[in-house]
Amino acid sequence: MAIPRKPLLTSLLLLQVMISFSVLVSAELISSLNSHSAPIHSNDYCAMYDICGQRTDGKVLNCPYGSPSVKPDDLFSAKIQSLCPTITGSVCCTETQFDTLRSQVQQAVPFLVGCPACLRNFLNLFCELSCSPNQSLFINVTSVAEVGGNLTVDGIDYHITDMFGEGLYESCKEVKFGTMNTRAINFVGGGAQNFREWFAFIGQKAQPGFPGSPYAINFRSSSPELSAMAPMNLSTYSCGDTSLGCSCGDCPSSPACSSPEPLPPPHEEDSCSFRIGPLKVRCIELSMALLYILLVSSFFGWATFSRTRDITQPDGSSESLVRLLEGDGINSELKESTLGVKVKRHAHLSPVQRYMASFYKSYGSWIARNPSLVLFISVAIVLALSSGLFRFKVETRPEKLWVGPSSKAAEEKKFFDSHLSPFYRIEQLILATVPDPKTGKAPRIVTEENILLLFDIQEKVDQIRGNYSGSEVPLTDICLKPLGEDCATQSILQYFKMDLGNYDEYGGIEHAEYCFQHYTSSELCLSAFQAPVDPSAVLGGFSGSNYSEATAFVITYPVNNIVGDSSNENARAIAWEKSFIQLAKKELLSMVQSNNLTLSFSSESSIEEELKRESTADVITIAASYLVMFVYISVTLGDAPQFYTFFISSKVLLGLSGVVLVLLSVLGSIGFFSAVGVKSTLIIMEVIPFLVLAVGVDNMCILVRAVKRQPRDISLEDRISSALVEVGPSITLASLSEVLAFAVGAFVPMPACRIFSMFAALAILLDFFLQITAFVALIVFDCKRAADNRIDCFPCVKVSSSSQESVEGGSEPGFLERYMKEVHAPVLGLWVVKMVVVAVFLAFALASIALSPRLETGLEQKIVLPRDSYLQDYFDSLAEYLRVGPPLYFVVKDYNYSLESRHTNQLCSISQCNSNSLLNEISRASQTPETSYIAKPAASWLDDFLVWLSPEAFGCCRKFTNGSYCPPDDQPPCCTADDDICSLDGICRDCTTCFRHSDLVRDRPSTAQFREKLPWFLNALPSADCAKGGHGAYTNSVDLKGYETGVIQASEFRTYHTPLNTQGDYVNSLRAAREFSSRMSNLLKIEIFPYSVFYIFFEQYLNIWTVALTNLAIAIGAIFVVCLLITSSAWSSAIIVLVLVMILADLMGVMVVLGIQLNAVSVVNLIMSIGIAVEFCVHISHAFLMSNGNREQRARKALETMGASVFSGITLTKLVGVMVLCFARSEIFVVYYFQMYLALVIIGFLHGLVFLPVILSLAGPPQIYLDTEEEEQGRDGASSSLLN
């Protein structure tokens, strides 16, 4: 007997292949007269018997003649019983026909053998059709055809009850075919949704050369009236039957499969909420509203009481202090202009304050005497550090930038790559139709014109040659080839075997649309690499399974990925990828657009290449920022502009020198870390120079203004010394706070942000060092230049002495000083204004806290790329068109496959496996994809291996007489490529199944059997006779290293996530997979972890809130300690921390409003904002602390003294620099640096110059003055008193 030869993986075809069973039913040719007699329908009578011919494709045809059933001999009867236990006594088939039936049945067995009840019902359907002794009662020949001079069956009616059909379908509808992560009925039933559709699928007459029945079978549920016929109505087995029970994965409705413990719901960030009418209110929002009412009410009550008390009991010391401040003479001037020196005359300072005052006084005098030496030494130190730039390297690999090396996901990826196989490289094209401008609806893309265009594109892709070391690299050299020599390209063109010549031959568009519904069951729909192609993987923009209305083609080229790449295969792939991107940009884009389509594209190396390009994308922006900042500094540092003295009073040269010092500090930081082997990042190169400049300019302005405030009648040495004593402590406090804040950022796990924080902390520290050394020395030189009447940018040129007098007299208060003294401070002193300020700022702070839980986590990939990157469109297309999620692997470590171990039944999902096994639980989870994010049951190498071993799957695990592996009959050497029809009598005729039932223990292999046969399975090619071969589907699913010991170190079970469109989807899918794996690990006592290619980039978001709050708390705590050490005032330090917390809360609220996500970049920015925000607070707070008078007077004095410096030197400098970043080409700079920094500057300014003075005037720390008796004391006496 001969059977048609099928190509590899034909077993993935329809159940129609199995319908060739009906071909096997035969009838005995009795006589030509009998052919014309009326058919007989009675017990023990056949409707068909024997074979009367065969078709051109080799399929046999039955004789249409009835005859009595025939009693078989004992041996034949036993053979029939082994396959068809319901048939006893006489039969309606010959022994040869039965053998052929058995060989054909083997194609269906591998799909269904995991569920014995389904398999038994399915076999009964064809056993009754082929061999039942009462065949004529339910089979009626309706048409005949002449073949080779003989009449043969051309069509029959198969009368069968609905009860049997329903029972058959219900027992089989959930049976899985793990290799393809889908249901077996998609292959053996054409995806039928009920038994009628299944029967209609089975009964189709196959065209010559196609799988299926050689004649039509019309299934009928009732018999003709007045007929002796009766529908076939064998009892069916439920999939939950105790004797033939199926696994829970194949029969989830079974009572035994009820989950003992339901899966936990997905992580919910805030489940506490309720409704007030139509408004949904979160608990935290209501809590903040109630807290606000309570605090504001308490504050207003306290303020009213305090105000009444102040009116009835005025402060006795107030008047004397006012009189002192209103006095004339030198001491009055000193109080107005030399705050640092004045307060020290009457203050009792802490040891730290006395030490800092003493240090800055002596240091200021020394540097004024030796400016050249200080400038030379300080610059030399930083230049020495900068020498490390010779080892400068930039890290652009995404996994090295955004994933910590010690992260759990990184360790799991390393384990997966080393024990199994790294995920392949992805090269992708997405073609989409353009939406109609009127309706907004995109037309369907599945048209003949578009498919022919796709063939043209594919031809150009096939012609790509990458250039690697002078050799050409075609796609065929690097692509993934799971079976044979064809690339596993995922494209709609695979329905035409990637061959334009097949387009018309197969039927064009109609064939493609046919394959959308029958891709698993039609041989003509198989790909060139002999595997089904899921339309959801090659089409996009459709809903449900309406593939014909798809609006996008998705073409994916999987390319081999090599760990370590010792053979330079990855380098060859990268060379091809570069040519691929160039082709897409230069040729494919125009081709597609000319057909009114859009094209987006990407390669595996695209992100890294675009990040490299980004390094030069914003050079002009950064340069413009420096230029604007330089111009602003030059104007700000100078005196009030007067034309006739501008060339002397301006500070252009000093400003330029300050900018150079900032650059030196950045170079010193980068040089130091480069020297110790730390690679830089693009963020460091582009952000830190701006950041350090913004911070450095603040202190420059404060230092210059402090020197300018000193009286001109004292020596330059005293002016420098007094200025440093006045502002040195606050500059030190601010700088140390910033350094500490950035240092805390170094604990963020994301490498890019951690390295950024390290570089920034050292850069700010070096900048502070250069400010109090080199820049002070430059101030000394500038003062000497101005005193010597030399022109600013040309110090060698002197002017007449008449201008000198003008310069000396040009120290009048500027506009900002007058505004602070005459407008800002008096307005904030009004009682009503104070109440409004406190109420408004408190409202914003609590509202921001209420909004903060709405802050989304994640980092959109588009943001980190240049705005003009081609990947921007690609990521948009992914979100809009993709309908399949990323692959998800559940990795099992140290699986003990020995017979004594329980691991096998704890993992598998076929018959006799535990109901709560891993694969059964994955199957259950896939039924709730909205919470589990698991789209399908897992492809299980273990299930397929156990089925492949099973004696029922007699076409799979076979051996020659010498014990070596024997492949299925439709594979070489059993059937060679030269054979048109594979004979059953060839070299493999003596092959037997590997095991009998008696060889197994409870249908499980022994340890030795498992060890011996596993390599056979993994090398077995799938085909029509055995679809369960593991080669291709499971080649890399099992780590065979050391498996001989009885333990498999690593194996994986593959499924898919649901489509993930948002950052929240990615984070929640990772969280759900981790929670599921943890639960299963604890339940089964087996180490299991989930792996998907994107996990390493999203792991940080699982605990990003914990990381953020912890680091922010540490940074705030560190700043409190520094403030406490330097000011020795816990009260003042607490107020600074309170304002910082409010600034931080408001900034997070703004992030929610602006849609800025919480990620490592924004966490570092938040930490950094604490350090920057200190500058808005510490100078005002320090001035308040060092002033005398009551709280109102001291707050006003602090604003008059430091308000202008904070506004112009801190607020405006940062504002000017930040504004330039809005023109950056990289979205990450616009969102995370322009928007966040701009919000920080505005919020910090409002808190530092509005809220903080009000709070200090209401509840500031007490003054440290004990008396004012020494008002007339001289300057030397003041310094002596201070230091003592």
From TrEMBL:
Query: Pfam families from the entry?
Result: NPC1_MLD, NPC1_N, Sterol-sensing
**Any single biological process term in GO:** cholesterol metabolic process
Compartmental location: Endomembrane system
Give the signal peptide, or none.
Answer: 1-27
Provide a GO CC annotation, any one.
membrane
InterPro entries from the entry?
A: HMGCR/SNAP/NPC1-like_SSD (IPR053958), NPC1-like (IPR004765), NPC1_MLD (IPR053956), NPC1_N (IPR032190), SSD (IPR000731)
Keywords tagged on the record: Cholesterol metabolism, Disulfide bond, Glycoprotein, Lipid metabolism, Membrane, Signal, Steroid metabolism, Sterol metabolism, Transmembrane, Transmembrane helix, Transport
What residue intervals traverse the membrane? 286-305, 373-392, 619-640, 652-676, 682-707, 727-749, 755-781, 828-851, 1104-1127, 1134-1156, 1162-1185, 1206-1226, 1232-1256
Residues forming the SSD domain are 618-781
Task: Provide the topology term for how it sits in the membrane.
Answer: Multi-pass membrane protein
Its chief place of residence is membrane
Indicate whether GTP-binding appears among the record's keywords: no
Q: Which GO terms describe its molecular function?
A: lipid transporter activity; sterol binding
What the record says about family reads: Belongs to the patched family.
Protein name stated in the entry? SSD domain-containing protein
